[in-house]
Amino acid sequence: MTFASLAPVYPELWLAVAAMALLLLGVFRGEGSTRLVSWLGVAALVVTLVLVRAQPAESQSAFGGMFLADGFARFAKLLILIGSGFAIVQSLGYIKYNRMDRFEYPVLILLASVGMMMMVSANDLMSLYLGLELQSLSLYVLAAFKRDSERATEAGLKYFVLGALSSGMLLYGSSLIYGFTGSTGFVQIAEAVKASGSHASIGLIVGIVFLSAGLAFKVSAVPFHMWVPDVYEGAPTPVTAFFAVAPKIAAVALFCRAMLSPFGDIAADWQQIIIVISALSMLLGAFAAIAQNNIKRLMAYSSIGHVGYALVGLAAGTEEGVRGILIYLAIYLAMNVGTFACILSMRHRDSLVEGVSDLAGLAKTHPFMAFLLAGFMFSLAGVPPLAGFFGKFYIFMAAINAKLYALAVLGMLSSVVSAYYYLRIVKIMYFDEADEPLSKPLRTELGAVMGITGLFTLLFFVYPAPLLAAAQAAAKTLFP
Amino acid sequence: MIIHALAFYLFAAIAVASGFMVIAARNPVHSVLFLILAFFNAAGLFVLMGAEFLAMILVIVYVGAVAVLFLFVVMMLDINFVELRQGFLQYLPIGGLIGFILLVELLLVLGGWASVPHVASSGALPIPPPEQVTNTHALGHVLYTKYVYLFQGSGLILLVAMIGAIVLTLRHRPGVRRQDIAVQTYRRRDEAVEVKKVEPRQGI
Asked: Which ipTM score applies to this complex?
């Protein structure tokens, strides 16, 4: 093996080495260096972004096929890197005021990003698991990062225990798949599945069921969603903002690859699982969020619902469906980052508040923020011509072309229901009187994040072609 | 050959018996000691199979580190295990039922076992005869070449675990006295020793 044969792994190598170098820098510079380490971490993510963009268009594999850098992986990696970069920028103010500004925070986000990039590039059950564990372990620590807060440590512990359970299920499924196909590589599994004819053996199906249960936990689809509201509410808000975006994108992308790449030929055998969890997620996301008064809990249920919509594309199992998922994830990234930037700016005097009713009167005190938050809410509800509408549009179009009419109708109905709680926030901001208005001025970096994501969300319909073309090219590589 | 079989049955019987005693023993410290016995016997079984490297790793890692850690935890945490076990009989029927269902399911799956054609040849690596190459050599050969990606990935995971342990537990307490050799050696006599004139029958 020469150094040149590592070319597909350069972005991951760079990011891992950069994370370790920043860790050393932090250790030597001491506690005061968090701000420096954070900005250098953002710079490292930008360089990784450039490295990913610079890779040649065709698929390359490394390490005997365990690692695959194809168009699909690259698209997902770009989204992950953008999400992680925003997460670091968003948390700068919060971690300073809440005395959790230790330099390990950005380093852990970088290491989690390495794990996510390994996940979406995994082409083998073993590298899949390693990437997943690297990501999850960093996230457990981040959830409990505010170690003096009882709620944060509870969230971290809950996430850790349930995450370990899901890893166990995933490993059990992997071992059955290995036992019944004789290989862990996706390519070899696909060959073995093809050789055994149109119907898979029952052992293989049990393996796929366990694998998808483990992955459904990681994407937080119903019925494996129990941890999400508690963890989202308990974890520090910028950590929640990170959880809701980059890891979710990585897990959905991994779910697509782990189902379509090795088991594409027996799609009929696993499609029904995806249909059921997708329908349940959409319904639960729509109905359970109605009663929520904590905005972080509300966003947790909202993210469960959105994962349901994304999985509709996987249930379709077509190239069009995967394209829809990728477009959806990109738009979801912008909407959620923007919404969390607004949530992070909600404060009364010195303390951060997270009740929905605390938003009352925002339109009078912060008209710019209220306008953008209203835009994000309309977009999350899927009102045209905002970006969120197009995400749902491409997903449901793929579902209808794959003859999943019932699922598409269910999705539209549940998005109508979910419009209720998104629009309630807009109503509270514009029409309710505040007892105590949100006082603090906006932080510059949060305002910038809101502005960028808001522009994308509001003006996506003007020029959607580049995103559509990129998603189309990326989806094509998953269907050779 | 007969000695081989005798050794196998000896190790296997003790391993199963001590495994049972791990969950049956009343005293948790005894449980951990039985666990160590089970590990030793499993290591013996590995040696019989010619996997000497795994046997040694089992003893070093599991007995030397994991089981000793368990012992520490059991001794340091004051948990009343008798109280924990009180609901055992109450949950036995439903637990037994679930166990039985899982067993039946496993048997059904294994009953329908049909492996893919050429499964033997599609294995990851050909296994050289054990006379030609030692365990350690064979493992090292694939671990640092074919599986280097997984090896490094595991390294990163362990790094995260280490960072996590430090982030979540390390606290800098003010006023802790630490040894600083440079300061100690640079101390001069007049800083360290104070001569006091003590009057008779007065005290200091």
From this structure: 0.92
For residue A422, how far is the Cα from the chain centroid? 20
Domain of B98?
88-204
Of A115, A195, A201, the CB nearest to B112: A201
CA-wise closest residue to A317 among A401, A420, A408, A387:
A401
Same domain assignment for residues B197 and B111:
yes
pLDDT single digits (tens) B129-166: 667 788 888 888 888 888 999 999 999 999 999 999 99
The highest-confidence range among A459-468, B177-186, B192-201, by mean pLDDT, is: A459-468
Q: How much is the pLDDT for A245?
A: 94
In a domain, B83, yes or no: no
Tell me if B68 is assigned to some domain.
yes
Partners of B164 on chain A (C-beta within 8 Å) are: 108, 137-138, 140-141
Q: How many domains does chain A have?
A: 1
Quote the number of domains for chain B: 2
pLDDT band of B122, cuts 50, 70, 90: low
Residues of B in contact with A64 (CB under 8 A): 146
Burial code (b: 16+ CB inside 10 Å, e: under 16) for A338-353 equals: bbbbbbbbbbeeeebb
With contacts defined as CB-CB under 8 Å, which chain A residues touch B114? 196, 201, 203
Domain membership flag for residue B161:
yes
Q: Please return the burial class of B201, using the count of CB atoms within 10 Å of its CB with bins 0-12, 13-18 and 19+.
A: exposed
- Which among A415, A391, A396 is positioned nearest to A406, based on CA atoms? A396
Domain hosting A214: range is 4-476
